[in-house]
Amino acid sequence: MKEKIDTLRSMIDGSDNIVFFGGAGVSTESGIPDFRSTSGLYNQEYKYPPEEIISHSFFMRDPEEFYRFYRNKMVCLDAKPNAAHFKLAELESKGKLRAVVTQNIDNLHQLAGSKCVHELHGSVFRNYCTRCGKFYTAEYIMQSAGIPRCDCGGTIKPDVVLYEEVLDQLVLRKSIQAIQEADVLIIGGTSLVVYPAAGLLQYYLGNKLILINKTELPQESRAALVIHGKIGEIMSQI
Predict the structure, then answer these.
(1) Which CATH architecture has domain 1-31+81-121+162-238?
(2) Is 76 annotated as a binding residue?
(3) Is 116 annotated as a binding residue?
(4) Residue 38, pLDDT score
(5) Minimal CA–CA distance to 160: which of 69, 46, 31?
(6) Residues of the chain with CATH 3.40.50.1220
(7) 132 marked as part of a ligand binding site
(8) β 97-102/184-188 pair status
(9) Active site annotated at which positions (predicted)?
(10) Quick check: 19 and 188 in contact, CB under 8 A?
């Protein structure tokens, strides 16, 4: 492991055009559950499968049940950034990391100090009225009961990408451009199975791909460096 950490450090030291692409595993060390591990959201007991609850059609059909799950499992306002978030923010402040592309919706990269963050799946910290477009905070959602309503009477929806919804095209274009232009691409804490986000790897044109994940990934044969472990523990050694 020490040899791999030394290689990671060397690759980071040798570049000022690094892009980080991360998933749920980046935030598990902050106490936020992932989706597909044995303790993840997809293995929880609910009346409906979680992947059905967090779909657009379910939100439209049964917003009250959607919000019961959403408040209990998807909003963690007390979560704090971990070592991975802080290290990435530090690398950006030193002019080495150009952008963070994240599948997470928890705002932890920004809380750690990262400035250029492309949120592929939106953020729980932004919510808007489906009728008039007025924005509301996450605190407002958590303090409300049942279906949160706007002053105009409209239903408030989290600014997150649900199943059956398309990604924000501007965010997607910026993410693709950052990955295309990257010298070093670090992918961490993601299973690389959720599309279209997982498909962003195909836009990387370089030969310095780094994969950091607790479990094996099918894309490892393409990587210049593969490290298995918790990303916070690994990044804290840089």
Answers:
(1) 3-Layer(aba) Sandwich (3.40)
(2) no
(3) no
(4) 47
(5) 69
(6) 1-31+81-121+162-238
(7) yes
(8) unpaired
(9) 121
(10) no
